[in-house]
C-alpha cells in the first residue's frame, strides 16, 4: 500500500513488439509509460523538479508554480502540485489535445490558453507562451520550473532508464540502441545516460520530418505533441547522443492504430513516431540485436482528435 499517490509513479512494463516488426529485423522493446498516474512519463519529471526545488529552497511552501507546456508536463505538474499543496499556473495552447487541458484543470491548475495558427505547433507559439510565463512570474512571484533547462528532470528520467536496465538484464537481453523523439530532451538524456552506465549503447534522437531542426537546422510546423519545439534542446547535451534522425510524421500517425490493434500498445503520436523510428533501426540492424524505445503516454489523451480514425 502506497502512503501517497506520488509513490505510484514508475514501475511501468517493458513490452516486446511481435506483429508490427518485420521478419528478420532486430527485436523492438517498448517501455509503456501510460500506466503512470496521469498516463504519462512526465509524472517522473514533474516530481523530480518539484522535489529538487524543495531541497534547494527555491520553492517555498504555498508558493505558486508556473510552466508553459504542450500538455503532458502541465497535467503531471498539476497532479504533483495538487498532492503537495502548491498552486499552479499553466500556459498552453489550443494546438494541444483538449484531454490534456481538461486534466490540468481537473487537478486544480489555472490554465492560460494561447491561440495557435490553425492548430499547428510552431516555434513562434512557444515564444508567445513563454511571454505569458514571464508575466505570471512577475505578477505572482511564481517559481518557474523551466523544463527546457532544469537538470532535475534527469533525476526522474534516470529512474526510467534504470528500470529498463533491470528489466532487460533480468531477461538476459542486451540493449544495442535506444531511440526516442525529443521535446525538452530530458527523457532522452536521462534514459540514455542510465543505459550507458550499464554498457555501451547507441543513442539515436528522433524528430518529425516536418520539423527537422536537429538534422537540418530547419524548424517547421507539425502535429506531434510533446516534441520538436523548434530548437535544439539544451538538455540534449546531458546524455550520450550519437545520431539524430527524422521520421515521417504521416507514417507515425498511421502507426498509432495498428500499434493498438495488433500489439495492444495504446499511445499517442509521439509514441507511434518512436516505434516507427525503432522499426527502421531494427530493419537496419537485423536479427540478434535489440532496440528500445518509449511509449510516452496513453492514447486516452488523443481520443477527441482523428489519430485513431483509420
From TrEMBL:
<protein>
    <submittedName>
        <fullName>Cysteine synthase</fullName>
    </submittedName>
</protein>
<dbReference type="InterPro" id="IPR050214">
    <property type="entry name" value="Cys_Synth/Cystath_Beta-Synth"/>
</dbReference>
<dbReference type="Pfam" id="PF00291">
    <property type="entry name" value="PALP"/>
</dbReference>
<dbReference type="GO" id="GO:1901605">
    <property type="term" value="P:alpha-amino acid metabolic process"/>
</dbReference>
<dbReference type="InterPro" id="IPR001926">
    <property type="entry name" value="TrpB-like_PALP"/>
</dbReference>
<feature type="domain" description="Tryptophan synthase beta chain-like PALP">
    <location>
        <begin position="8"/>
        <end position="297"/>
    </location>
</feature>
<keyword id="KW-0663">Pyridoxal phosphate</keyword>
<dbReference type="InterPro" id="IPR036052">
    <property type="entry name" value="TrpB-like_PALP_sf"/>
</dbReference>
Amino acid at each position: 500500500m502506497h502512503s501517497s499517490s506520488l509513490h505510484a509513479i514508475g514501475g511501468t512494463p517493458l513490452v516486446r513488439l511481435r506483429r508490427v516488426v518485420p521478419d528478420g529485423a532486430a527485436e523492438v522493446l517498448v517501455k509503456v509509460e501510460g500506466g503512470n498516474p496521469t498516463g504519462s512519463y512526465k509524472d517522473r519529471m514533474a516530481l523530480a523538479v518539484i522535489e529538487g526545488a524543495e531541497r534547494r529552497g527555491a520553492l517555498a511552501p504555498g508558493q505558486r508554480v508556473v510552466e508553459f507546456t504542450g500538455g503532458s508536463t502541465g497535467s503531471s505538474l498539476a497532479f504533483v502540485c495538487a498532492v503537495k499543496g502548491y498552486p499552479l499556473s499553466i500556459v498552453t495552447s489550443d494546438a494541444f489535445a483538449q484531454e490534456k487541458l481538461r486534466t490540468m484543470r481537473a487537478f486544480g491548475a489555472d490554465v492560460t490558453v494561447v491561440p495557435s495558427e490553425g492548430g499547428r505547433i510552431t516555434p513562434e507559439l512557444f515564444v508567445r507562451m513563454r511571454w505569458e510565463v514571464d508575466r505570471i512570474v512577475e505578477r505572482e512571484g511564481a517559481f518557474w520550473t523551466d523544463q527546457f533547462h532544469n537538470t532535475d528532470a534527469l533525476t526522474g528520467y534516470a529512474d526510467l532508464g534504470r528500470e529498463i536496465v533491470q528489466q532487460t538484464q533480468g531477461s538476459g537481453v542486451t540493449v544495442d540502441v535506444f531511440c526516442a523523439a525529443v521535446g525538452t530532451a530530458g527523457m532522452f538524456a536521462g534514459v540514455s545516460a542510465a543505459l550507458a552506465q550499464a554498457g555501451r549503447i547507441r543513442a539515436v534522437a528522433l524528430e518529425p520530418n516536418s520539423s527537422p531542426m536537429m538534422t537540418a537546422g530547419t524548424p517547421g510546423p507539425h502535429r506531434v505533441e510533446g516534441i520538436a519545439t523548434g530548437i535544439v534542446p539544451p538538455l540534449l547535451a546531458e546524455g550520450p547522443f550519437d545520431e539524430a534522425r527524422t521520421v515521417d510524421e504521416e507514417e507515425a500517425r498511421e502507426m498509432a492504430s495498428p500499434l493498438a490493434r495488433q500489439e495492444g500498445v495504446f499511445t499517442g503520436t509521439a509514441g507511434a513516431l518512436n516505434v516507427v523510428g525503432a522499426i527502421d533501426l531494427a530493419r537496419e540492424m537485423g536479427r540478434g540485436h535489440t532496440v528500445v524505445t518509449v511509449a510516452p503516454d496513453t492514447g486516452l489523451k488523443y481520443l477527441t482528435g482523428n489519430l485513431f480514425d483509420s
